[in-house]
Protein backbone atom coordinates (compact mmCIF):
# COMPACT_ATOMS: atom_id res chain seq x y z
CA UNK A 1 0.00 0.00 0.00
CA UNK A 2 1.45 3.30 -1.00
CA UNK A 3 1.48 6.44 1.03
CA UNK A 4 -1.04 8.09 -1.37
CA UNK A 5 -3.44 5.15 -0.98
CA UNK A 6 -3.18 5.31 2.78
CA UNK A 7 -3.84 9.03 2.71
CA UNK A 8 -6.87 8.58 0.48
CA UNK A 9 -8.25 5.85 2.71
CA UNK A 10 -7.88 8.11 5.71
CA UNK A 11 -9.90 11.00 4.18
CA UNK A 12 -12.17 12.52 6.83
CA UNK A 13 -15.94 12.16 6.55
CA UNK A 14 -18.61 14.81 7.21
CA UNK A 15 -18.06 16.95 10.27
CA UNK A 16 -20.57 15.97 12.95
CA UNK A 17 -22.76 18.70 14.42
CA UNK A 18 -21.58 20.41 17.54
CA UNK A 19 -22.27 18.51 20.67
CA UNK A 20 -25.56 19.45 22.24
CA UNK A 21 -26.72 21.61 19.29
CA UNK A 22 -29.07 19.07 17.74
CA UNK A 23 -30.27 17.94 21.14
CA UNK A 24 -31.40 21.44 22.19
CA UNK A 25 -33.29 22.26 18.98
CA UNK A 26 -34.33 18.74 17.98
CA UNK A 27 -35.35 16.95 21.17
CA UNK A 28 -36.62 20.08 22.98
CA UNK A 29 -38.26 22.46 20.44
CA UNK A 30 -40.50 23.79 23.18
CA UNK A 31 -37.48 25.65 24.58
CA UNK A 32 -37.15 27.69 21.37
CA UNK A 33 -40.91 28.20 21.27
CA UNK A 34 -40.86 29.41 24.87
CA UNK A 35 -38.28 32.09 24.05
CA UNK A 36 -40.13 33.14 20.88
CA UNK A 37 -43.59 33.22 22.45
CA UNK A 38 -43.41 36.78 23.94
CA UNK A 39 -42.16 38.21 20.66
CA UNK A 40 -44.79 36.30 18.67
CA UNK A 41 -47.57 37.42 21.02
CA UNK A 42 -46.46 41.05 20.75
CA UNK A 43 -46.16 40.77 16.96
CA UNK A 44 -49.62 39.26 16.72
CA UNK A 45 -51.21 41.87 18.96
CA UNK A 46 -49.59 44.90 17.34
CA UNK A 47 -49.29 43.82 13.69
CA UNK A 48 -51.21 40.72 12.67
CA UNK A 49 -54.47 41.44 14.49
CA UNK A 50 -54.78 45.12 13.33
CA UNK A 51 -54.12 44.09 9.73
CA UNK A 52 -56.63 41.25 9.87
CA UNK A 53 -59.28 43.38 11.55
CA UNK A 54 -58.77 46.21 9.03
CA UNK A 55 -59.34 43.80 6.16
CA UNK A 56 -62.45 42.43 7.91
CA UNK A 57 -63.81 45.92 8.77
CA UNK A 58 -63.31 47.15 5.20
CA UNK A 59 -66.03 44.72 4.08
CA UNK A 60 -68.75 46.35 6.22
CA UNK A 61 -70.67 49.63 6.12
CA UNK A 62 -70.31 52.64 8.41
CA UNK A 63 -72.28 51.00 11.23
CA UNK A 64 -70.14 47.88 11.12
CA UNK A 65 -73.13 45.55 10.86
CA UNK A 66 -74.07 45.57 7.18
CA UNK A 67 -71.87 43.53 4.87
CA UNK A 68 -71.00 45.51 1.74
CA UNK A 69 -68.36 43.34 0.09
CA UNK A 70 -66.06 45.41 -2.10
CA UNK A 71 -68.26 48.53 -2.15
CA UNK A 72 -65.87 50.41 0.14
CA UNK A 73 -63.00 49.68 -2.24
CA UNK A 74 -65.08 50.95 -5.16
CA UNK A 75 -65.64 54.18 -3.24
CA UNK A 76 -61.90 54.48 -2.64
CA UNK A 77 -61.31 54.63 -6.39
CA UNK A 78 -64.38 56.75 -7.23
CA UNK A 79 -64.18 59.44 -4.53
CA UNK A 80 -62.58 62.64 -5.87
CA UNK A 81 -60.91 63.43 -2.53
CA UNK A 82 -59.24 60.02 -2.38
CA UNK A 83 -58.07 60.30 -6.00
CA UNK A 84 -56.49 63.66 -5.14
CA UNK A 85 -54.83 62.04 -2.12
CA UNK A 86 -53.47 59.23 -4.30
CA UNK A 87 -52.10 61.71 -6.85
CA UNK A 88 -50.38 63.67 -4.08
CA UNK A 89 -48.91 60.48 -2.65
CA UNK A 90 -47.38 59.73 -6.04
CA UNK A 91 -45.83 63.21 -6.06
CA UNK A 92 -44.53 62.66 -2.54
CA UNK A 93 -43.00 59.26 -3.35
CA UNK A 94 -41.24 60.58 -6.45
CA UNK A 95 -40.08 63.99 -5.22
CA UNK A 96 -39.35 63.80 -1.49
CA UNK A 97 -37.05 60.72 -1.29
CA UNK A 98 -35.12 61.60 -4.45
CA UNK A 99 -34.48 65.23 -3.46
CA UNK A 100 -33.65 64.40 0.16
CA UNK A 101 -31.25 61.64 -0.94
CA UNK A 102 -29.60 63.87 -3.55
CA UNK A 103 -29.07 66.64 -0.99
CA UNK A 104 -27.78 64.14 1.56
CA UNK A 105 -25.30 62.80 -0.99
CA UNK A 106 -24.08 66.30 -1.90
CA UNK A 107 -23.71 67.30 1.75
CA UNK A 108 -21.90 64.07 2.67
CA UNK A 109 -19.40 64.38 -0.20
CA UNK A 110 -18.70 68.09 0.19
CA UNK A 111 -18.34 68.07 3.98
CA UNK A 112 -15.54 65.52 3.68
CA UNK A 113 -13.31 68.24 2.23
CA UNK A 114 -13.88 71.06 4.71
CA UNK A 115 -12.48 71.52 8.19
CA UNK A 116 -15.83 72.42 9.73
CA UNK A 117 -17.65 69.50 8.12
CA UNK A 118 -18.66 67.98 11.46
CA UNK A 119 -20.30 71.22 12.61
CA UNK A 120 -22.14 71.51 9.29
CA UNK A 121 -23.43 67.93 9.59
CA UNK A 122 -24.63 68.70 13.11
CA UNK A 123 -26.60 71.72 11.90
CA UNK A 124 -28.14 69.81 8.96
CA UNK A 125 -29.04 66.83 11.14
CA UNK A 126 -30.50 68.97 13.94
CA UNK A 127 -34.05 69.17 12.43
CA UNK A 128 -34.32 65.40 12.99
CA UNK A 129 -34.47 66.16 16.72
CA UNK A 130 -37.63 68.22 16.15
CA UNK A 131 -40.99 66.48 16.16
CA UNK A 132 -43.26 66.61 13.12
CA UNK A 133 -45.69 68.72 15.12
CA UNK A 134 -43.06 71.33 15.96
CA UNK A 135 -41.71 71.33 12.38
CA UNK A 136 -45.25 71.82 11.06
CA UNK A 137 -45.82 74.82 13.33
CA UNK A 138 -42.45 76.31 12.33
CA UNK A 139 -43.16 76.05 8.61
CA UNK A 140 -46.73 77.25 9.01
CA UNK A 141 -45.15 80.49 10.24
CA UNK A 142 -42.43 80.42 7.58
CA UNK A 143 -45.06 80.24 4.83
CA UNK A 144 -47.26 83.05 6.21
CA UNK A 145 -48.56 85.23 3.37
CA UNK A 146 -47.66 88.55 5.01
CA UNK A 147 -43.97 89.45 4.45
CA UNK A 148 -43.99 90.99 7.93
CA UNK A 149 -44.61 87.53 9.45
CA UNK A 150 -43.55 84.87 6.94
CA UNK A 151 -39.80 84.39 6.43
CA UNK A 152 -40.23 82.89 2.95
CA UNK A 153 -42.20 85.87 1.63
CA UNK A 154 -39.97 88.36 3.45
CA UNK A 155 -36.99 87.00 1.50
CA UNK A 156 -38.95 86.69 -1.74
CA UNK A 157 -40.36 90.23 -1.54
CA UNK A 158 -36.91 91.58 -0.71
CA UNK A 159 -35.45 89.97 -3.83
CA UNK A 160 -38.39 91.16 -5.95
CA UNK A 161 -38.19 94.75 -4.74
CA UNK A 162 -34.45 94.80 -5.43
CA UNK A 163 -35.13 94.45 -9.16
CA UNK A 164 -38.59 96.04 -9.40
CA UNK A 165 -39.26 99.45 -7.87
CA UNK A 166 -42.46 99.40 -5.78
CA UNK A 167 -45.25 101.92 -6.27
CA UNK A 168 -44.79 105.03 -4.09
CA UNK A 169 -48.45 105.34 -3.02
CA UNK A 170 -50.35 102.04 -3.44
CA UNK A 171 -54.12 102.39 -3.29
CA UNK A 172 -54.20 106.20 -3.61
CA UNK A 173 -56.84 107.78 -5.87
CA UNK A 174 -58.50 111.19 -6.52
CA UNK A 175 -61.74 112.32 -4.94
CA UNK A 176 -64.87 111.36 -6.92
CA UNK A 177 -66.08 114.11 -9.22
CA UNK A 178 -62.75 115.92 -9.26
CA UNK A 179 -60.52 116.94 -12.14
CA UNK A 180 -58.87 113.53 -12.36
CA UNK A 181 -60.81 110.58 -13.78
CA UNK A 182 -59.94 106.91 -14.11
CA UNK A 183 -58.75 106.00 -17.61
CA UNK A 184 -57.89 102.29 -17.38
CA UNK A 185 -54.87 100.39 -16.16
CA UNK A 186 -55.15 102.08 -12.77
CA UNK A 187 -54.17 105.49 -14.19
CA UNK A 188 -55.95 108.85 -13.75
CA UNK A 189 -56.11 111.64 -16.37
CA UNK A 190 -57.24 115.25 -16.15
CA UNK A 191 -60.50 116.15 -17.87
CA UNK A 192 -59.12 119.37 -19.33
CA UNK A 193 -55.79 120.20 -20.95
CA UNK A 194 -52.96 121.84 -19.02
CA UNK A 195 -51.50 125.16 -20.14
CA UNK A 196 -48.19 126.91 -19.53
CA UNK A 197 -48.37 129.59 -16.88
CA UNK A 198 -51.39 128.00 -15.17
CA UNK A 199 -50.23 125.53 -12.48
CA UNK A 200 -52.19 122.26 -12.36
CA UNK A 201 -53.67 120.94 -9.12
CA UNK A 202 -53.67 117.14 -8.74
CA UNK A 203 -54.99 116.24 -5.25
CA UNK A 204 -55.19 112.60 -4.09
CA UNK A 205 -56.70 110.80 -1.11
CA UNK A 206 -56.53 107.29 0.45
CA UNK A 207 -52.77 107.49 0.99
CA UNK A 208 -51.51 105.25 3.79
CA UNK A 209 -50.12 107.18 6.77
CA UNK A 210 -46.80 105.32 6.66
CA UNK A 211 -46.31 106.39 3.04
CA UNK A 212 -46.31 110.09 3.98
CA UNK A 213 -44.47 109.72 7.27
CA UNK A 214 -41.88 112.48 7.32
CA UNK A 215 -43.18 114.09 4.10
CA UNK A 216 -42.94 117.86 3.65
CA UNK A 217 -45.95 120.13 3.49
CA UNK A 218 -47.26 120.63 -0.03
CA UNK A 219 -46.30 123.82 -1.86
CA UNK A 220 -48.29 125.45 -4.63
CA UNK A 221 -46.31 125.38 -7.89
CA UNK A 222 -45.18 128.72 -9.27
CA UNK A 223 -46.10 129.54 -12.87
CA UNK A 224 -43.12 129.26 -15.22
CA UNK A 225 -43.28 130.93 -18.65
CA UNK A 226 -43.39 128.39 -21.47
CA UNK A 227 -43.63 125.41 -19.11
CA UNK A 228 -46.41 123.38 -17.50
CA UNK A 229 -46.17 123.16 -13.70
CA UNK A 230 -48.32 121.68 -10.98
CA UNK A 231 -48.50 120.01 -7.56
CA UNK A 232 -49.54 116.56 -6.40
CA UNK A 233 -50.53 116.41 -2.73
CA UNK A 234 -52.52 114.51 -0.15
CA UNK A 235 -55.87 116.31 0.05
CA UNK A 236 -56.49 115.30 3.64
CA UNK A 237 -55.54 116.70 7.04
CA UNK A 238 -55.34 114.48 10.07
CA UNK A 239 -58.17 115.43 12.43
CA UNK A 240 -60.11 117.18 9.68
CA UNK A 241 -60.01 120.72 8.37
CA UNK A 242 -58.83 122.36 5.19
CA UNK A 243 -60.65 122.95 1.94
CA UNK A 244 -60.92 120.00 -0.48
CA UNK A 245 -59.02 120.61 -3.71
CA UNK A 246 -56.86 123.38 -2.25
CA UNK A 247 -53.38 123.29 -0.76
CA UNK A 248 -53.39 124.34 2.87
CA UNK A 249 -51.67 123.92 6.21
CA UNK A 250 -51.05 120.29 7.19
CA UNK A 251 -51.54 118.86 3.70
CA UNK A 252 -48.57 116.71 2.76
CA UNK A 253 -46.69 116.65 -0.54
CA UNK A 254 -46.58 113.40 -2.49
CA UNK A 255 -42.99 113.06 -3.69
CA UNK A 256 -41.86 110.60 -6.36
CA UNK A 257 -45.16 110.54 -8.29
CA UNK A 258 -44.70 110.13 -12.05
CA UNK A 259 -46.70 112.67 -14.13
CA UNK A 260 -47.14 112.24 -17.90
CA UNK A 261 -48.28 114.70 -20.54
CA UNK A 262 -50.56 112.91 -23.03
CA UNK A 263 -51.66 114.17 -26.42
CA UNK A 264 -53.86 112.04 -28.72
CA UNK A 265 -53.11 108.93 -26.68
CA UNK A 266 -49.33 109.37 -26.85
CA UNK A 267 -47.03 110.36 -24.01
CA UNK A 268 -45.09 113.43 -25.09
CA UNK A 269 -43.22 114.13 -21.83
CA UNK A 270 -43.02 113.02 -18.22
CA UNK A 271 -41.73 114.28 -14.88
CA UNK A 272 -41.48 113.17 -11.27
CA UNK A 273 -42.71 115.24 -8.34
CA UNK A 274 -40.12 116.76 -6.02
CA UNK A 275 -40.08 116.59 -2.23
CA UNK A 276 -42.59 119.46 -2.05
CA UNK A 277 -44.94 117.73 -4.53
CA UNK A 278 -44.25 120.09 -7.46
CA UNK A 279 -43.35 119.08 -11.00
CA UNK A 280 -42.35 120.87 -14.21
CA UNK A 281 -42.97 119.76 -17.80
CA UNK A 282 -41.41 121.32 -20.94
CA UNK A 283 -43.28 123.80 -23.10
CA UNK A 284 -44.16 121.27 -25.81
CA UNK A 285 -46.72 119.82 -23.39
CA UNK A 286 -48.84 122.97 -23.53
CA UNK A 287 -52.38 121.91 -24.32
CA UNK A 288 -51.82 118.25 -23.39
CA UNK A 289 -53.69 116.36 -20.72
CA UNK A 290 -51.89 115.27 -17.55
CA UNK A 291 -51.95 111.62 -16.52
CA UNK A 292 -50.87 109.88 -13.34
CA UNK A 293 -50.00 106.33 -14.52
CA UNK A 294 -51.16 103.27 -12.62
CA UNK A 295 -47.60 102.42 -11.63
CA UNK A 296 -47.89 105.13 -8.96
CA UNK A 297 -50.76 103.34 -7.22
CA UNK A 298 -50.27 99.62 -7.89
CA UNK A 299 -50.56 97.37 -4.86
CA UNK A 300 -47.26 96.39 -3.34
CA UNK A 301 -45.94 92.96 -4.21
CA UNK A 302 -47.00 90.69 -1.36
CA UNK A 303 -45.00 87.59 -2.22
CA UNK A 304 -46.03 84.09 -3.23
CA UNK A 305 -49.06 82.23 -1.90
CA UNK A 306 -46.99 79.28 -0.66
CA UNK A 307 -49.97 77.56 0.96
CA UNK A 308 -52.37 78.23 -1.91
CA UNK A 309 -53.97 75.39 -3.89
CA UNK A 310 -51.19 75.21 -6.49
CA UNK A 311 -48.10 75.34 -4.24
CA UNK A 312 -49.24 73.78 -0.96
CA UNK A 313 -47.94 70.26 -1.73
CA UNK A 314 -44.46 71.40 -2.94
CA UNK A 315 -44.22 73.70 0.09
CA UNK A 316 -44.95 70.86 2.52
CA UNK A 317 -42.48 68.62 0.68
CA UNK A 318 -39.89 71.37 1.23
CA UNK A 319 -40.55 71.21 4.98
CA UNK A 320 -40.15 67.42 4.90
CA UNK A 321 -36.84 67.66 3.03
CA UNK A 322 -35.61 70.21 5.60
CA UNK A 323 -36.15 67.55 8.26
CA UNK A 324 -34.96 64.40 6.48
CA UNK A 325 -32.03 65.58 4.36
CA UNK A 326 -29.89 65.32 7.50
CA UNK A 327 -30.97 61.70 8.00
CA UNK A 328 -29.92 60.88 4.43
CA UNK A 329 -26.64 62.75 4.87
CA UNK A 330 -25.65 60.82 8.01
CA UNK A 331 -26.32 57.40 6.46
CA UNK A 332 -24.53 58.28 3.23
CA UNK A 333 -21.58 59.76 5.15
CA UNK A 334 -21.29 56.49 7.08
CA UNK A 335 -21.23 54.57 3.79
CA UNK A 336 -18.75 57.01 2.32
CA UNK A 337 -16.38 56.38 5.23
CA UNK A 338 -16.18 52.74 4.16
CA UNK A 339 -15.33 53.46 0.51
CA UNK A 340 -11.75 52.33 -0.25
CA UNK A 341 -9.68 55.46 -0.82
CA UNK A 342 -7.31 53.48 -3.06
CA UNK A 343 -10.02 53.23 -5.72
CA UNK A 344 -10.59 56.97 -5.69
CA UNK A 345 -6.89 57.75 -5.88
CA UNK A 346 -6.42 55.20 -8.67
CA UNK A 347 -9.16 56.89 -10.69
CA UNK A 348 -7.50 60.28 -10.22
CA UNK A 349 -4.12 58.86 -11.23
CA UNK A 350 -5.74 57.49 -14.39
CA UNK A 351 -6.74 61.04 -15.33
CA UNK A 352 -10.35 61.21 -14.10
CA UNK A 353 -11.51 64.61 -12.88
CA UNK A 354 -13.50 65.06 -9.67
CA UNK A 355 -16.88 64.89 -11.41
CA UNK A 356 -15.94 61.64 -13.16
CA UNK A 357 -14.64 60.17 -9.89
CA UNK A 358 -17.90 61.12 -8.18
CA UNK A 359 -20.17 59.84 -10.95
CA UNK A 360 -18.34 56.65 -11.96
CA UNK A 361 -16.66 55.55 -8.73
CA UNK A 362 -18.20 57.13 -5.63
CA UNK A 363 -21.89 56.82 -6.57
CA UNK A 364 -21.68 53.15 -7.77
CA UNK A 365 -19.86 52.18 -4.56
CA UNK A 366 -22.53 53.97 -2.51
CA UNK A 367 -25.41 52.34 -4.43
CA UNK A 368 -26.37 49.95 -1.55
CA UNK A 369 -26.48 52.82 0.95
CA UNK A 370 -28.42 55.04 -1.44
CA UNK A 371 -30.91 52.21 -1.93
CA UNK A 372 -31.44 51.93 1.83
CA UNK A 373 -32.01 55.68 2.15
CA UNK A 374 -34.42 55.91 -0.78
CA UNK A 375 -36.50 52.90 0.28
CA UNK A 376 -36.66 54.07 3.90
CA UNK A 377 -37.86 57.51 2.83
CA UNK A 378 -40.37 56.04 0.38
CA UNK A 379 -41.97 53.97 3.13
CA UNK A 380 -41.94 57.05 5.37
CA UNK A 381 -43.64 59.38 2.89
CA UNK A 382 -46.33 56.85 2.00
CA UNK A 383 -47.71 57.32 5.50
CA UNK A 384 -47.00 61.05 5.86
CA UNK A 385 -49.71 62.72 7.90
CA UNK A 386 -48.47 65.21 10.52
CA UNK A 387 -46.92 67.85 8.29
CA UNK A 388 -49.85 67.95 5.88
CA UNK A 389 -52.43 68.19 8.63
CA UNK A 390 -50.58 70.99 10.46
CA UNK A 391 -49.15 73.12 7.63
CA UNK A 392 -51.98 73.12 5.09
CA UNK A 393 -54.69 75.71 5.92
CA UNK A 394 -58.33 74.75 5.75
CA UNK A 395 -58.80 76.49 2.40
CA UNK A 396 -56.23 74.28 0.65
CA UNK A 397 -56.26 71.16 2.83
CA UNK A 398 -58.19 69.26 0.17
CA UNK A 399 -55.50 70.15 -2.40
CA UNK A 400 -52.73 68.85 -0.11
CA UNK A 401 -54.62 65.70 0.86
CA UNK A 402 -52.72 62.41 1.18
CA UNK A 403 -53.90 58.87 1.84
CA UNK A 404 -52.97 58.80 5.53
CA UNK A 405 -54.81 62.09 6.12
CA UNK A 406 -57.83 60.88 4.13
CA UNK A 407 -57.82 57.68 6.21
CA UNK A 408 -58.10 59.81 9.35
CA UNK A 409 -60.80 62.05 7.89
CA UNK A 410 -62.86 59.12 6.60
CA UNK A 411 -62.61 57.26 9.91
CA UNK A 412 -62.94 60.11 12.42
CA UNK A 413 -63.88 63.24 10.44
CA UNK A 414 -67.26 64.75 9.67
CA UNK A 415 -68.42 61.84 7.48
CA UNK A 416 -67.44 58.99 9.80
CA UNK A 417 -67.24 55.74 7.85
CA UNK A 418 -64.68 53.36 9.28
CA UNK A 419 -65.46 50.89 6.51
CA UNK A 420 -64.03 53.29 3.93
CA UNK A 421 -61.23 54.23 6.31
CA UNK A 422 -60.28 50.57 6.71
CA UNK A 423 -60.36 50.12 2.92
CA UNK A 424 -57.91 53.04 2.58
CA UNK A 425 -55.70 51.45 5.26
CA UNK A 426 -55.63 48.16 3.35
CA UNK A 427 -54.88 49.98 0.11
CA UNK A 428 -52.06 51.88 1.80
CA UNK A 429 -50.65 48.59 3.09
CA UNK A 430 -50.71 47.17 -0.44
CA UNK A 431 -48.76 50.22 -1.65
CA UNK A 432 -46.12 49.75 1.05
CA UNK A 433 -45.72 45.98 0.53
CA UNK A 434 -43.84 46.14 -2.83
CA UNK A 435 -41.31 48.57 -1.37
CA UNK A 436 -40.83 46.31 1.65
CA UNK A 437 -40.38 43.23 -0.55
CA UNK A 438 -37.74 45.03 -2.63
CA UNK A 439 -35.95 46.05 0.56
CA UNK A 440 -35.98 42.47 1.94
CA UNK A 441 -34.63 41.04 -1.31
CA UNK A 442 -31.89 43.65 -1.36
CA UNK A 443 -30.83 42.74 2.18
CA UNK A 444 -30.75 39.03 1.32
CA UNK A 445 -28.56 39.69 -1.71
CA UNK A 446 -26.11 41.66 0.43
CA UNK A 447 -25.83 38.79 2.91
CA UNK A 448 -24.82 36.28 0.25
CA UNK A 449 -21.03 35.68 0.03
Task: Characterise the protein shown here.
The protein is of the alpha+beta class. The protein folds into two domains: about 70-150 and about 305-445, MetI-like (MetI-like fold), CATH 1.10.3720; about 180-295, no CATH class. About 50% of the residues lie in helices and about 10% in strands. The chain contains 15 helices and eight strands. Strands 1-2-8-5-6 form a five-stranded antiparallel beta sheet, with no helix packed on it. A hairpin with a 5-residue loop joins strand 1 and strand 2. Helix 2 (about 20-25) packs across helix 3 (about 30-55) and helix 6 packs across helix 9. The radius of gyration is 37 Å and the shape is elongated. The relative contact order is 0.13. The model is unreliable at about 1-10 and about 20 (pLDDT under 50).
